[in-house]
Amino acid sequence: MDKQEQILLAALKLFVEFGFHGTPTSKIAQEAGVSNGTLFHYYKTKDELVVALYVYIKTNLSECFNISQADGETVRATFKRLYLGWMYWALENPVEFKFTQQFNSSPYQSMLSNEAIQNQTQRLISLMQEAINTRVLKPLPVELLFTLISSHLYGINEYLLASNPAAEKKDEIINQSFDILWDMIT
Amino acid sequence: MDKQEQILLAALKLFVEFGFHGTPTSKIAQEAGVSNGTLFHYYKTKDELVVALYVYIKTNLSECFNISQADGETVRATFKRLYLGWMYWALENPVEFKFTQQFNSSPYQSMLSNEAIQNQTQRLISLMQEAINTRVLKPLPVELLFTLISSHLYGINEYLLASNPAAEKKDEIINQSFDILWDMIT
DNA sequence: ATTCAGATTGACTAATCACTCCACAAAAAT
DNA sequence: ATTTTTGTGGAGTGATTAGTCAATCTGAAT
Question: What is the spatial distance, in angstroms and rounded to an integer, between the CA atom of B6 and the C1' atom of D1?
Answer without folding.
Answer: 36
